[in-house]
Structure formats: structure tokens, C-alpha cells
Write a structure and sequence with these properties.
Blueprint: E1 2-6, E2 11-12, H1 13-19, H2 26-34, E3 38-40, E4 43-44, E5 51-52, E6 57-60, E7 63-69
Parallel strand pairs: 1-7
Antiparallel strand pairs: 2-5, 3-4, 3-6, 6-7
Helix pairs in contact: 1-2
């Protein structure tokens, strides 16, 4: 599981996918989220603006990420 360190209160789901290089573009992030291909804390999430905070876990394809405080 890859740890994504943030120094802000939260990061939005689409931004996290781009930041982690799980997707190449914002458009691709929007597409995979809207198709229900991303899970947040074990549940399918279709809100690209979902606020992720330290402790949240994201799963996309074979990749897993955990949001941690920087």
C-alpha cells in the first residue's frame, strides 16, 4: 500500500489519483470515478470531489493508497 502524504486538511479524490500517478489526466480521473472503478474505505465512490483525509484508504485497479499527514 502506497502512502500519500498531504500537508493540508484534505485532498480531493480526483486530485489524489492524478498526484499518485494512478491516472494521467483529470479527465481520466473523472471517467474512472464516474464508472465506479474507485473504492474509498472499501466502498465504491462516484464523487470525484470526495474529500480524503488522513486515515482514508483508496483502491483503484491493483493499486492501494492510504492518505497520511505529512
Amino acid at each position: 500500500m502506497e502512502k500519500i502524504a498531504i500537508d493540508t486538511e484534505f485532498i480531493k479524490l480526483d486530485s489524489m489519483l492524478k498526484f499518485s500517478a494512478a491516472v494521467a489526466t483529470g479527465g481520466e480521473a473523472k471517467l474512472v470515478i464516474s464508472q465506479g472503478l474507485v473504492k474509498v474505505n472499501g466502498e465504491e465512490c462516484t464523487m470525484r470531489g470526495k474529500k480524503l483525509r488522513p486515515g482514508d484508504k483508496v483502491k483503484f485497479q491493483n493499486m492501494e493508497f492510504e492518505i497520511v499527514k505529512a
